[in-house]
């Protein structure tokens, strides 16, 4: 899965698809993607097991073309985490603050099953 795949979904969810007036830069969203991978690793390191039971590690995507260290099944929680972080930047907007909390709760629910 590429970082650009996650960014495209995130931009649709937060209605930030106008490349002339982006609210969040790719670099900010890439940072949140890296943060999401690290948090998933803390909660569920087993998701980083590769073929032959080799353990992977969270990455630090530096470009939209970066390949993430998790498979497609992790797309939903990564998107939820990145959306939550982006919306938290608009914390002075009460609705976005509430949405941020809901997306972060969804991240934890999907990753931990709780």
Question: What can be said about this structure in brief?
Answer:
The protein is mainly alpha-helical.
Ordered list of secondary-structure elements with their pairings:
Blueprint: H1 3-13, H2 26-43, H3 75-89, H4 94-112
Helix pairs in contact: 1-3, 2-3, 3-4
Regions with little confidence, pLDDT below 50 for 5+ residues: none
Helix share bin: 55-70%
Count of individual beta strands: 0
Order of helices and strands: HHHH
Question: Any idea what the shape is?
Answer: globular
**Terminal CA distance:** 25 Å
What does this structure look like?
The relative contact order is 0.19. The two termini are 25 Å apart. It is built from 4 helices and no strands. The chain is mainly alpha-helical and 114 residues long. It has one domain (3-112).
What descriptors fit this protein?
single chain, 114 residues, mainly alpha, globular
